[in-house]
Amino acid sequence: MTTFQFLPLEVGNALLSWVFPPLFHILIPRILPHIVKDNEVRSELEKCWTKLAMIQAVLNDAEVKQWMNMAVRIWLDDLRDFAYDLEDMLDEYASKIIEDNLKSEHRTDFVSTMIDQLLTFWNNSNSISSIGDINKLLEELCERRSQLGLMERVVGETSSVAVWQIPPSTCQLTEPAVYGRDEDKRVGKTALTQVVYNDSTGGIHFDQKVWICVSNDFDVYRMSKAILESITHSSCYLKDLNEVHVQLKMAVTRRRFLLVLDDVWSKNYDLWKILISPFLTGAREEELVLLWMAEGLILPSSTTTKHLIDIGHDYFHDLFSRSIFQKSSSDASKFVMHSLVNDLAQWVSGETSFRLEEELATPVQLKRFQRARHSSYSCCNFDGKNKFKVFDEVTDHLRTFLPILTHNLEYCFISNAVIFDLLPKFKKLRVLSLRKYYITKLPDSLGYLRYLRYLNLADTEVRSLPDSIILLFNLQILILRNCSRLLRLPRNVATLINLRHLNINGACLISEMPWGMSELKYLHTLSDFIVGTNSGSSVKDLKNLEFLSGELHISRLQNVTNSQELRQAILIDEKNLEVLTLDWGLELNLRNEIVEKDVLDMLRPHTNLRKLTIKHYGGIEFPSWVGNPYFSNMVDLELEDCKNCTSLPPLGLLGSLKYLRIKGMTGIRQTGPTFYGEGCSRPFRSLETFCLEDLPIWQRWNPVEDNEHVHSFCRLSELSIINCPELTGNLHRHIPS
To answer: Which parts of the sequence belong to the Disease resistance protein winged helix domain (predicted)?
Structure first.
C-alpha cells in the first residue's frame, strides 16, 4: 500500500484521457494563433489536428477491441507514444514563444544573456522534431486504423465482438482487509500455513520470514517486540512501544517479508491498526495534487473559475470518496492506496510508468523500461551511479524522476555523477524531486530542462540555486521547504511566469524576497514573504498576487520604514487567504511606533481570514480592523510579543473566535470593557480555549459592568494563565462556572 501511480483524471472517455495527455488538448489551440510568421508550420499543424480528430472518432471502438485483438492494443500503445512526442514538440514551440516574449519584455542584460545561452544549448541539441515527420507518423497511424477496421462508435454502444463482461460493482471494497481464513476450526489452517512457510522456494520471494504465535493475549507491545527480535536476530530491551515501532519501521523498510500470526483470537480492529502501523507509509494530499498538476493531469474547468490546485483537490476528494485512497492508520495527515487498487493502477499505466525497486537485472524488465515516461524508485541511504545505469535507456523521453522516501531516513546520499551528468540528459523532464538528499550544489544545466514543471529540493543542504533556474519558464511548483542552508532565491524571478506554488518554509537564512515577485501573477500558494532592506521585492508587491490562497507568513516587517510607500491596503483583496502571520523583528530599538501601526493598518486582510497571528509588533495600539466584527470567519487569533502595546483590541466582538492566545504583552496592566467590546451583549460567545501567558505587569482583569443582559465566555472550556505574577482578583467574576 505504498506505491502511487500517475493516473489521468480527465472527465470523459477514459481511454482518450490516457492516450492523449490532457495538456495536448490545450496546447494546439493556444499555439496556432501565435504561429503566424511560419505559414508552413501552421498549415502542417492544422493537418495534424484534422487527422487527430479522425483518430479520436474511433477510440471508443479501439477501447473495446483491444482485449480481443493484440494488434489494436499495439496500435493504441504506439498512438500513446506518438501523443507524448507530439506534446513534447508543442511544448517546445510554446516555450520558444515564451522565450521570445520574455527577451523583448525584460531589458536587463542578465536575463537576455541567460536566454541566449538557453537557445544556443537547445539549437545545438537538435531537439525540435520536424512537424512534417510528425505528420508522417500520424498518417501511418491513420492507415493502420483503417487496416484494423476501427469504426466510429457512440459511447455505450454495444459491440458484436464477444467481450468479457465485468459484473456490476462499486468502488467500495466489500472487505476492509483480508488476513486469511478464520473461525473455521480444525480445517488445517496452521498446517497449511506451515507448508507454505517452510517451502524451499519461499526465500526467492521474501527477504525475511517471521512466525509469531499470538494465542489469547493480543499484546501489541509483546508482538511488535517479538517481530523486531525475529527480524534483527537480536534482543530488544526497549520499553516504549513507540521506540519499538520506530526500530521496526527501519528494519522492514524496502524489504519483502512474510509475517505469520498464528492462533489469533482478538477481533479488536483498533489493536490491529496499531500493530500494522510500522508496515504502512503514505503521501499527503497536497503532494499528490501538486504532482498531478505538474504532469498536466488537471484541466481547467469551463464552468468555474477555480484554480488548478483547487480543481486537483476536488479530484482527490472524489477519489477518496470512492476508496481509491484511504487514510493512513499511522498518520492521519497521509493517505495510502489499497494494494488491489495499486495493482490496477500499474496495469492501466502499462509500460509508461516504471518503479525501480533495485537495479534492473532481467532483459524483460529492461525492455519494458525503455518505453517508460514516468519513473520512481526506492530511495536508499546511498544511491550510487550504478543504480541509475538503466536510465541511459530513457534519457530522450523520461518525464518523471521521483524517489520514494521513508520517514526513517534522516538523510540520503546520491552520487554527484547522477546530479551533474545524468539529470541534465533528461531534456523532457517535467517532474524532478531530490528531496532529502544530502546535496549542497546543483548544476547550471538545471535551467536547461525547459519543460520542468515540478522541482522539489526540500530538506536538502543546497546553499544557492543556479542562476539558470530563471530559465525554467514552465516551472509551476518549486519546493524549498527546510532548506536550512539556502542563502537566497534567484535574483530575478520575474521570468518564472507560470509559477503556482512556492514553499520556502524553514529556509531561515533567506533574508529577502528577490526582485520580480509582483510578476508572478499566477502564484497560488506562497508559504513566506520576507521583507528585505535593499534590492528585493517590496511588501506592496503582494497586492499583484491576487490568487494567493491558504497560508502566508510575512516576516521582517520592521524593514518597512516608510509607510507612505504602501499607500493602499495590500491584502484586502486576497479573499482566498485563510491563515496569515504578520511578524516584525525581535529588536525594538530604533523602531517607529507610528510607522508600524500604519503598516499593520495597510496589511488588513480580507474578512474571509480564519486564523491571524501578529508577532513582535512595535506599535502602542492596534489599528481598528483588529477585532472588527466584520471578521466573522476568524476562529483563531494569536498576539505574541507585542511589547509596546498598552491595551488590547476589542476581541470580544469576534463572534466566531474559538481559540485566543495572548503572550508576551509586557505593556498590558489591565483588561476591561474595551477588550470585551463596547455594547456587546455576548462577548467571546464562541471562545473555547483562552491562554494568557507572560504578562509580567498585568494586575487587573476588570469585568464588564454588572449587566444581567451581558453574557460572556459562554462556551469557554479551557483557560490557561501562565507566568502572570501580578494578577489579583477573583476569576469567577469574569468566567462562568
So the answer is: 284-345
Given this chain, do its domains 457-547 and 564-737 carry the same CATH topology?
yes
Distance between CA atoms of residues 322 and 320, nearest Å: 5
Taking the chain (737 residues) in runs of 10, the rounded mean pLDDT of each run is: 33 42 50 56 73 80 84 87 81 75 60 53 48 81 88 57 37 40 50 61 58 72 81 78 71 64 62 65 73 78 75 82 75 74 74 70 64 83 86 83 76 90 91 93 90 94 92 92 93 88 94 91 94 83 91 93 77 93 85 90 94 95 94 95 93 94 94 84 90 94 66 88 88 62
Residues 113, 119: Cα–Cα separation, whole Å: 10
pTM of structure? 0.75
Is residue 98 within 8 A of residue 475, CB to CB? The reply is no
Residue 186, phi then psi, degrees to nearest 5: 60, 35
Count of alpha carbons within 13 Å of 573, Cβ hemisphere only?
A: 10
Q: Is 241 exposed, middle or buried (0-12, 13-18, 19+ CB in 10 A)?
A: middle
Class of domain 457-547: alpha beta
Correct CATH for 564-737 of 3.80.10, 2.60.120, 2.40.50, 3.40.50:
3.80.10
Map out the domains of the chain as residue ranges.
14-147, 190-279, 283-337, 457-547, 564-737
Q: Count the neighbouring beta carbons within 10 Å of the beta carbon of residue 469.
A: 23
Contact call for residues 250 and 281 (beta carbons, < 8 A) = no
Strands (E), 372-512: 374-378, 382-383, 400-404, 413-414, 431-433, 454-456, 477-479, 501-503
Helix, strand or coil for residue 18? helix
Instruction: Judge whether 435 and 410 are in contact, CB under 8 Å.
Output: no
Q: β-pairing, 283-284 with 334-337?
A: antiparallel
